[in-house]
Design a protein that fits this description.
Length: 220
């Protein structure tokens, strides 16, 4: 975990693509896209049905490692609003154990708008916590410090003639976009015009590596 400051709050960037907020003992993550494989299967595209279990196993390990008391999921936690109903028994048991052990909040995203509560936790459209606005998609007009997801940012660089891709955070002084946490999620180049438009000028891609936070300026 790498400590850094955003809008006066000390946060910790995790290589897994989540944030830890020590003052609140809170874990923040975005875009789990649980039950994405089963959604595609209903359309006839068969994928290995283990994405939810893999994602929840990683999340369970992070909650244990950080001793998190709160978990904030910044939208698109399920690939569609009925994803919770399709969870296999093992995945449902993993998720309900997590929501029962922490103060868990789901923020609705574009994929899971209208999410129904069958897995525990509270559901909100967006919220403000200790001066930080938590929502799914960054609002270019928002002036308050804002944490969001939605874009699944990835940094793509070329090293020794080989392209390397890694999930990353995208940050300005007032906006911080989290990468996708889910096991079955793609990614959008961090320098994509839609991301740059959402956060404004001066954006950086942040990549936590061991005890360092690597910063890569993103062109406007």
């Amino acid at each position: 975990m790498v400590r850094f400051t955003f809008a006066g709050q000390e946060l910790m960037a995790l290589p897994q693509g989540a944030l830890f907020w020590p003052a609140r003992r809170a874990l923040l993550l975005a875009d789990l896209h649980l039950e994405k494989a089963s959604w595609f299967a209903r359309l006839g595209q068969m994928l290995p049905p283990y994405d939810s279990i893999a994602t929840l196993a990683d999340l369970t390990a992070l909650v244990a490692a950080t001793s998190a008391r709160e978990v904030w999921c910044l939208g698109d936690s399920f690939h569609d609003r009925f994803g919770c109903e399709r969870l296999p028994e093992r995945a449902r048991a993993m998720l309900t154990a997590l929501t029962a052990a922490t103060r868990w909040t789901w923020i609705a995203g574009n994929h899971d708008a209208g999410l129904l509560d069958h897995c525990g936790g509270a559901i909100v459209a967006e919220t403000e916590v200790d001066g930080l606005l938590l929502r799914h998609e960054a609002d270019p007009a928002e002036q308050r410090p804002e944490l969001s997801g939605h874009f699944h940012p990835k940094l793509r660089i070329t090293q020794r003639g080989r392209q390397v891709s890694r999930r990353c955070f995208v940050a300005t002084e007032t906006k911080l976009i989290l990468p996708a946490f889910g096991a079955l999620t793609g990614g959008l180049d961090a320098a994509h015009p839609e991301i740059v438009r959402a956060v404004g000028p001066g954006a950086e891609a942040l990549v936590p590596v061991a005890d360092r936070l690597l910063r890569f300026p993103l062109a406007a």
